[in-house]
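Example record used in the benchmark description.
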Amino acid sequence: MNAQLIDGKKLATETRAEIARGVAALKAEKGVTPGLAVILVGDNPASVSYVTAKEKACREAGMLSREIRMPATVAEDELIAAIAKLNADPAIHGILVQLPLPKGFSEKRVIDAIAPEKDVDGFTPVNVGRMLIGDDCFLPCTPHGIIKLIEVTGMDLAGKHAVVIGRSNIVGKPVAALLSRKSVNATVTLCHTGTKDLAAFTRTADVVVVAAGRPNTLTGDMLKPGAVVIDVGVNRVPDATKEKGYRLCGDADFASCAEVASAITPVPGGVGPMTITMLLWNTLESARRVEG
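Model output (structure tokens):
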């Protein structure tokens, strides 16, 4: 392996320490504790795990954490009413509805119900629009974390070519928008399932962000020597040598990409830790804005 390992756990730990200092200062100066409310509908194991991790992170940062669990059979209007109550609660500065929602719910209607000033996930149309035009807003957590991870490599993205693989509303589209902002100034190519000859684009890229949801989407022979690789994927692949019968891997073939790249994120331990970290970042910022 030639590539530098981009340690998301280390960066997350350092950033969370900074957040905890900010929370303590806000408490001391204003008597205010930043509050994050998480709504979990149903009992999807992955969602339960994520929510538990978010609660733990809040407590460690000194924030108020409020969890609202609802059965998968809850009426959508009841869920909307719970969001409206949180919108009006001055103790809550951030609201997160854990996705995906069970079948039958309109994710658009539910997300649209969150007040933009408490939308610490950065998913509402108001915040997405503000992000696209470069206005001040809550940046979506995973894309914001990706920018932070690229920054720690020391690469100046101005004028560089960045290729984003994947066009989801959660990662692909927003990270492409952030990379093309004037403050970053990269030239961005957005690739997806309809892209012909993906390697023709990735071989010219200084940075590749792969968020396709499929193992081995990116391999070493598809990279420009010295490129930075940010692997967003988390996939379970069968592995009889593991106790659980599977192992986690990203969307990039780590071994071959690490031989060509200058820096690469591992899976797990790369992008994942930064997602919750930037959620805390946004919650603290929301509390600061409210309290002036």
